[in-house]
Amino acid sequence: MSNIPQENGKCPHCGADIEGTYKNVYIYGSPIRTCKKCKKQYWNKRYHEIAIDGIRPEDLSTKGNGKMILGTLIASIVLIALNVVSYSMRGRVFKALLVGAVLAVIFFFGMIIETIKVKSGKKAKELEKKRQESCQRLQNREYADALVQLGYQVPVEYLKD
Q1: 10 Å Cβ neighbour count for 42?
Q2: pTM of the model
Q3: Is the pLDDT of residue 1 over 50?
């Protein structure tokens, strides 16, 4: 596991595209990933060991969700209205406007669902489950040592023999 190369959208071993290589995504899970094509390991900085890094406060906050919900609702209404007006005047539907409206509606409902999950405590339970899984991974000394080599500040309790 030592000397694990970092990925940049492609597997550092075989060059295969890495699924879900969104730069600004923060994911809880093992940062040591395995390429689906060549089966070799690499370091993905978007993944974070929750037992080491902790839970980000924004992951359990609804601050700002109200503005985002309102913004996506307004965007949905405007895009739908533009499409209705366009259709009534020219008899055409603009696919880009329609796709934008559908995406805005999906995002709107996604934000509502996320807010409900945070307020109900379901999100905290999900993150606690991920924390327990992280603690379980860290019980493997070889894995904990590999994280240390990557620069992680692994708690001493996981580095004891």
Answers
A1: 20
A2: 0.73
A3: no
